[in-house]
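Input.
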Amino acid sequence: MQKTRPLIALLALVLSSAPAGAAPEPMVFADARQYAVADWLLIGERHALNYLVAAARGATAEDGPGAEAFLARLPCDVERHPRYIVVRCVGRVRAHPIDPAQFQVDPLLRSASLSFEARGFTHEVRWRGQRDAAPPAVRAGAGAAYAEGAVGAVMPAAARGRVFGRNLRYTRYDWAIIDQGAIAVAEVFLEDGSDGTITRTLRIPR
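Output.
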């Protein structure tokens, strides 16, 4: 089953990132799914590391049920200003097919867990919802390469885990979510559907 292009498109949308490369024709898909994203930022004096882990499970109208995990360790440059910090990160998000049992989501979105092996490491992440209940959400978005509409529920979360052999815990620079719902996307994104380059620029108040 091939779901990589839709789910990387979804991850790029969630992270407000710019994907590299474009297929000549748009692809339209519908997706009923659960997903979770964990985004850690470790800031040094002049450089930073951005760890991204995401997972999705569900079914598309085109491909049926399945699950994938996404993994990135992005090098970043840091610019320090009197009132804020600018962090610019560039790198690749890589997709890894997983068994749906490796990504578990509580039906009420109070927690989620992921464990998979990739690139010589065992990566483990646990999400904990930060509210008693996830509020319903309706989203619409568009950009140069996509148009999206979604309905579902989104739970703000805190994430901790071990990624690339490093223990990661929640800090004020990090964010995470647990989400479930239905999504419809028309997108022009990755030609090969295996991985994608993202560029992120973050402005963080001191």
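The CA atoms of residues 146 and 187 lie 4 Å apart.
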